[in-house]
Amino acid sequence: MNNIEISKYLSYILRHKPEIIKLKLDKEGWGDIQYIIDNSEMKLSYDIIKEIVDTNDKKRFSISEDGTKIRANQGHTTKDVDIHFKKSIPPIILYHGTKEEFFSSIMKKGLLPMERQYVHLSNDIETAKKVGDRRKGKTIILSIDAKQMLADGIEFYISDNNVWLVKEVNKKYIDIIK
Ligand code: HQG
Predict the structure, then answer these.
(1) Model-level pTM?
(2) 58 lines ligand 1 (CB under 6 A)
């Protein structure tokens, strides 16, 4: 198993399906590292997990201060977790990378969290492009009028790895830029 495969596995159990190894996550998303090592189908060690957390390209995970627990910083679909994210003031414009085929639905219903708990928004076009490019097909970049959303009382949260999170984005705040 290489580190990318282990990172995907950790994402899977920490964001989506902790129950596959009967892992208990608390509301803030923390799970016991030793339990994961003892119960994972993969051969894991504390040092490998620590290395993956430290070198992960998107800083997807954190280890607790006492070193005993790990969590995914965002992206959850499991109902077990409801992280108390920091409420924060967004930049004037945020971006969302998606697929052209979703555009008409987005312009009808707005951006919805779909399987996840929040809609994920990016600080810059480059990051949004990378998010969109994860799926095949033509990527489009949407600009989100975060300034107006904020003025309208909508709350923005930021994860520990700097992803902007909102419950949804009404179509009136969305524009396509490319
Ligand atoms: C789309 C990755 C039709 C939405 C990334 C997206 C991100 C709609 C897809 C994080 C829609 C959901 C999240 C509507 C939204 N009609 N389609 N009304 N509203 N959509 O994966 O933003 O590598 O749940 O545009 O970097 O793609 O996992 O969200 O295309 O931060 O760490 O429905 O996942 O991070 O897909 O990606 P996702 P996302 P990780």
Answers:
(1) 0.92
(2) yes
